[in-house]
Amino acid sequence: MIEIVPNEPQFYEFIRVLRNDERVKHGFINEAVITPEQQTEYMAIHADEYVVSLYDGSPAGYAGSVDGDIRVCTHPDYQGRGLGRALVEAIIGRYPNSRAKVKVENTASLRLFESCGFTATYLLLDPPSDDSLDTREKD
Ligand SMILES: CC(C)(COP(=O)(O)OP(=O)(O)OC[C@H]1O[C@@H](n2cnc3c(N)ncnc32)[C@H](O)[C@@H]1OP(=O)(O)O)[C@@H](O)C(=O)NCCC(=O)NCCS
C-alpha cells in the first residue's frame, strides 16, 4: 500500500542514500554525491519542502519542490508501482506552480510527469563542449 507522509529526520539518510544510488543518479541533472554533512545542512533549510512515499510501511521514494523546481525519486526496488505518480501529485497539491527540468534521455521521468498532466514547454540548449568546438574548427 502506498502512503505519502511528511519528511522527518528519520528519512533524511534514506533520501541521501537513494539520491546517491548509482541506479538513479543518472536521472538527475546534478549528479554530485551528497555527504552526510551536506544533507544535514540542506535539510535544516528544505526538509518541509519534501514528502516521502512509504510502500507497505517502508520508505520507498521522495519528492520535493525547492524554488518551484520539482525533484522526485523512487527506489529501484519499488519503481513502476505508481509511487512516482503519487509523489508528484502530492507535491503539486502543495506547490501547484512547480515545474520539472527533465533530461532529454530520461524517458521514465518524462512519462511520469506527462502522466501527471505536465506538458513540455521549453528545451534547454547547452553550448557546445570544448571537444566539439575543436572538431568544428578543424572542419
Ligand atoms: C522517474 C521515476 C521517479 C518514476 O518513478 P516510478 O515510481 O517508477 O513511476 P510510476 O510507477 O508512478 O510511473 C508513472 C508513469 O511513468 C511511466 N514510467 C515510469 N517508469 C518508466 C520507464 N522506465 N519507461 C517508460 N515509462 C515509465 C509509467 O508507465 C507511468 O505511466 P502511466 O501512468 O501512463 O502508466 C523513477 O524512474 C526514478 O526514480 N528515476 C531515477 C531518478 C530520476 O530520474 N528522477 C527524476 C529527475 S527529474
Explain what this protein looks like in three dimensions.
With 139 residues, the chain is α+β, with helices and mostly antiparallel strands. It has a single domain, classed as Aminopeptidase (3-Layer(aba) Sandwich), CATH 3.40.630.30. It has 6 helices and 4 strands; from the N terminus they run βαααβββααα. It has helices at residues 9-20, 22-25, 36-46, 83-94, 107-115, 130-138, and strands at residues 2-6, 50-55, 58-66, 69-74. A hairpin with a 2-residue loop joins strand 2 (50-55) and strand 3 (58-66). Helix 1 (9-20) packs across helix 3 (36-46). The radius of gyration is 17 Å and the shape is globular. The relative contact order is 0.14. The model has no long low-confidence stretch (mean pLDDT 94). The structure holds coenzyme A. Coenzyme A is lined by residues 24, 27-28, 72-74, 79-85, 100, 102, 106-109, 111-112, 115. Coenzyme A (COA) is lined by residues 24, 27-28, 72-74, 79-85, 100, 102, 106-109, 111-112, 115.
Strand and helix map with partners:
Blueprint: E1 2-6, H1 9-20, H2 22-25, H3 36-46, E2 50-55, E3 58-66, E4 69-74, H4 83-94, H5 107-115, H6 130-138
Antiparallel strand pairs: 1-2, 2-3, 3-4
The structure holds coenzyme A.
**Would you state the CATH class?**
Alpha Beta
How large, in whole angstroms, is the Cα Rg?
17 Å
Oligomer: single chain
Largest sheet: 4 strands, antiparallel
Indicate the low-confidence ranges by residue numbers: none
Question: CATH H-level name... which superfamily?
Answer: Gcn5-related N-acetyltransferase (GNAT)
Number of helices: 6
- Strand fraction band? 15-25%
